[in-house]
Write a structure and sequence with these properties.
This protein is of the alpha/beta class. It is built from 18 helices and 11 strands. Helix 1 (2-35) runs antiparallel to helix 6 (121-149), helix 4 runs antiparallel to helix 5 (90-112) and helix 5 packs antiparallel against helix 6.
Length: 489
């Protein structure tokens, strides 16, 4: 009885959540509009407290009307994209939010500079800068609050018994702000999952002969149907039953190896046929040009901003042992062309001889080096070199590789010809389609703690699913990983 009351209370809360999210966005937008007036205070040397405590009356009517129209359009755009009715992964929602923001800013600029109305451009543009910070922060705070109250938590049941179900659980667990909580794993008849095959502490039980009755007993939770490819035909009756009689259903099809981002769904009238149109972005000229322009502009800005740090590091290395500050390792680039991958020297000048001596004393560590090409306590690394590696500052000279067109800011890990031949297999041809990157998915997913097989998988996923927004996300996450020094040695 108590569980039924809890379920009913949660359902009532969930019904109000979309309205709470809308009100939160409206509050963030209008708070940004109100605080945007501070730019006038700073620009005209007026007391900020006086500005905030005194409304401007008729002088602000045009600004109010314009911002009201633009903010209403923004709320409508978020509603159409499902920000209030559907739950989305954090970075996907943030990317859509940024796209709406850019559109509204462009409309604001077009109206502000048309010259037809007397309005404060400084106020309006300051408002949109504040919106860019306040809107995501307000959403995050609201969802954290709702999670703590239990109003944002949505029970999820995963149906499956193989790798696809395990991957679906990992994906849900990786996005805690979605609020999806895996309560059970239901195993269809005829399946027997291996012990410890699911990355969850949730109970694992049989789905039973009547799936709808089982789900009704569990309170009609949200269901993720994650069958493996070889199970779809055997479970056709289950799929049909859930598809017709269960409204809270998400299907996780076992589609590995395909470019998932931007995939278009094709439906055919009166036919039970679903076709997926694949779009490989980096195979097209437009996206490649966009990526190259982004690399050039961003790398040039970074070189200018970081030039004092670059000179200082070079000076410290030279002062250490008198050797060269930079060195170039041969790596394989786009179209299989070798290039010199630049780094600040972090090893002693007789590194090769030191490594041979080290393996003579510690032969058991040779296997680790051959698997990962790294050692956790590498005897060749200098004192300044250890700091450079832990902070990834040794890779800053690769900005010049980017400017020379040999690398990208984000891409697959630059590898040697030996690594490419030994570990990449068929993925090697995919690797050669793009420039290797200073950072990449492998770096923000565990760095040196990932296995080589995982690195190859992450590289191939990135190439097949590239978007400019994903590059920006990876760069932002790289900063976080470097500051925390996760997995670096």
């Amino acid at each position: 009885m108590k569980s039924e009351v809890t379920i009913c209370a949660r359902v009532r809360w969930l019904q109000w959540v979309p309205y709470i999210l809308v009100l939160g966005d409206m509050a963030a937008l209008w708070a940004a509009f109100y605080l945007g007036r501070l730019s006038h205070a700073f620009y005209y040397h007026v007391d900020p407290g006086w500005v905030l405590l005194h409304w401007w009356g008729s002088h602000a009517q045009i600004n109010q009307l314009l911002f009201l129209v633009l903010s209403t359009l923004g709320i409508m755009a978020f509603a159409v994209k499902g920000h209030y009715s559907r739950r989305k992964a954090f970075w996907d929602e943030t990317g859509e939010m940024l796209g709406v923001f850019i559109l509204l800013l462009a409309l604001n600029a077009a109206i502000a500079f048309s010259g037809k109305w007397q309005l404060s451009r400084l106020w309006l543009f300051s408002t949109w800068v504040l919106v860019l910070g306040l809107l995501p922060m307000t959403r995050w705070l609201l969802r954290v609050t709702l999670l703590r109250l239990g109003a944002w938590v949505r029970p999820v049941v995963v149906i499956g018994c193989g790798q696809n179900a395990a991957e679906a659980i990992r994906a849900l667990n990786s996005e805690p702000m979605l609020g999806y909580s895996v309560q059970r794993v239901l195993v269809p008849g005829g399946c027997s999952p291996a012990a410890g095959s699911f990355p969850t502490h949730a109970p694992i039980e049989a789905l039973g002969e009547d799936p709808l009755a089982t789900l009704a007993r569990l309170g009609k939770p949200h269901v993720v149907l994650a069958l493996d490819m070889d199970q779809w035909e055997a479970q056709e009756r289950l799929v049909r039953s859930l598809g017709i009689g269960y409204p809270n259903l998400t299907i996780a099809p076992p589609l590995r190896g395909l470019p998932l981002f931007g995939m278009e769904v094709m439906h055919f009238f009166s036919h039970e046929v679903l076709m997926l149109r694949v779009r490989d972005n980096l195979a097209r000229l437009g996206p490649r040009v966009t990526k190259r322009l982004f690399d050039l502009v961003a790398a040039l800005l970074l070189v200018v901003i970081l030039s004092p740090l670059l000179f200082y590091i070079a000076w410290r290395i030279r002062m250490g042992d008198g050797g060269h500050a930079l060195y170039a390792q041969e790596r394989i680039g786009r179209n299989g062309k070798p290039f010199g991958c630049l780094k600040f020297r972090s090893m002693v000048t007789d590194a090769d001889a030191r490594l041979v001596e080290y393996f003579c004393v510690h032969p058991e560590l040779k296997g680790e080096y051959e698997r990962t090409f790294k050692l956790k306590n590498d005897p060749r690394i200098t004192s300044i070199g250890e700091f450079l590696r832990k902070t990834s500052l040794d890779e800053l000279p690769q900005l010049f590789n980017v400017l020379r067109g040999e690398m990208s800011l984000v891409g697959p890990r630059p590898v040697t010809a030996k690594e490419l031949q030994k570990y990449y297999g068929d993925v090697g041809e995919l690797y050669k389609l793009v420039h290797p990157g200073i950072s990449g998915l492998w770096q923000v997913s565990g760095r040196s703690n990932t296995t080589y097989t995982e690195r190859v998988y992450l590289d191939s996923w990135y190439i097949k699913n590239w978007t400019l927004w994903y590059d920006i996300v990876i760069l932002l996450r790289t900063v976080k990983v470097v500051l925390r020094r996760d997995g670096a040695y």
